[in-house]
Amino acid sequence: MEQSESVTESAERLSPTEKVVTEIARQEDVSPLDLPPLHDVVDPAGLDQLFTPTGDAARMRGTVSFQYSGYDVTVHADGYVEAAPCE
After folding, report:
1. Where is the Halobacterial output domain (predicted)?
2. What is the pLDDT of residue 1?
């Protein structure tokens, strides 16, 4: 159980861009380094800043969606990343 908690805690510390690349790599069973550059489809710094807390308030609303490496990707303000193969 401690191992899964550690993995969860580690995943929570990833930036949105890291979560996107990690999730696509996991689904494709490849290294994240084998994927095309994310910056070809979205500004990574902008994506990371979009849901960054400001001052004392967290940004807990909203989503951003885009296609990357054959997947429809949605990043939620709470940090959740959805990735489904494009139809």
Report:
1. 15-82
2. 36
Q: Which tokens sit at 40?
A: 């070809």
Q: Which is nearest to 69 in space by CA: 28, 29, 18, 31?
A: 28
pTM value is 0.80
CB 70 within 8 A of CB 85: yes
Question: Residue 15 carries which side chain, given as an amino acid letter?
Answer: S
Do 81 and 19 touch, CB atoms closer than 8 A?
Answer: yes
Name 52's Cβ contacts closer than 8 Å, sequence gap at least 6: 59
The torsion of the CA quartet 59, 69, 32, 54, rounded to 10 degrees, works out to -10
pLDDT at residue number 7? 38
